[in-house]
Amino acid sequence: MAEFLNTTVNAILVAGLYATMSYGLALIWGVMKIINLSHAGVLMLGAYSTWWLSNTLGVDALVTLPITAIAFFLLGMVIERVLVRRLADAPPITTLLLLFGLWLVMQNFAYSVFTGDTRAVLTPYTQSNLRFGLLTIPVTWLVTFAIGLVILLLLQQFLTRTMAGNAIRALAQDRDACRLVGIDAECLNMVAFGLGTMLAAVAGGLLALLFSFSPEFGGPFQLKSFAIIVLGGLESLIGVAVASLIVALAEQWSVAVIPAALQNVVAFVILVVALVVLPNGIMAAVRQIEWRPFRSPR
């Protein structure tokens, strides 16, 4: 019972991080309808940014996250303005290949600057645990969950309580109508891509607190993000949060029946099942359910 309880709590903590790294991918798809294959490269560079800044400045890795967030928000806007916007009228495969090539450029940049050595971000609380009765919670997991929760709350507030956020949501629903009422779609595309890049980089920084990394880092997490946004619904932030919890629980519970080395396979199995059974995601399936408790039988 204690092991099951610890596994479940750890899965909930992992789900918060998975949601953080998936929201950026979902946001860019929702607004621009493009699959950002450079997501993995940004996750990796976010991890390296956290490691480099914490070592250079001699501060806790968490202190560097605002710097990483600002830098990658600006980088994302530059990528959209200089590269992605030029292919706005091109077939979707063209943008897909462009962002895949950008991922390779990021990877090779990391190899040339940081070499292929495996790095790790260590903090004074890396090996610390909190005990609550039968529960044993790693402090690092708890900290990353708390930061991820704060980020998601801030994102929700931005999207629902600000003019720019409401405009982004409207753009995701009907681009032509937004143009008719005078909304600057190109500017919002740039902001959305910047936000998506920023979320991915911060998620990479949080992942660096938990896992070692190299220039190959990011690929498996990108695939998990794909599984999460497909399962949750490509345009539903709530669905992404629910799907993150499902994937995290499935991964953590699967350790009891499969080797830990195969844990990443669980997310890929979920991706295949979701594409076959729930191609429109969980939230779309929920919306289709008609509740008629008082309807008389025919």
Descriptive overview:
This protein has 298 residues and is mostly helical. The chain has one domain. Helices cover 70% and strands 3% of the residues. It is built from 12 helices and 2 strands, in the order ααααββαααααααα. Strands 1-2 form a two-stranded antiparallel sheet. A hairpin with a 2-residue loop joins strand 1 and strand 2. The longest helix has 31 residues.
Q: Helicity, in percent? A: 55-70%
- Multimerization state: single chain
Distance between the termini: 48 Å
Question: How many domain modules?
Answer: 1
How would you characterize the largest beta sheet?
Answer: 2 strands, antiparallel
The overall pLDDT, averaged over residues, is 84
Top keywords for this entry?
two-stranded antiparallel ribbon; mainly alpha; 298 residues
Topology overview:
Layout: H1 2-32, H2 39-57, H3 65-82, H4 92-114, E1 129-132, E2 135-138, H5 139-161, H6 163-173, H7 175-180, H8 185-208, H9 219-232, H10 237-254, H11 263-277, H12 282-287
Antiparallel strand pairs: 1-2
Could you give a quick summary of the protein structure above?
The chain is built from twelve helices and two strands.
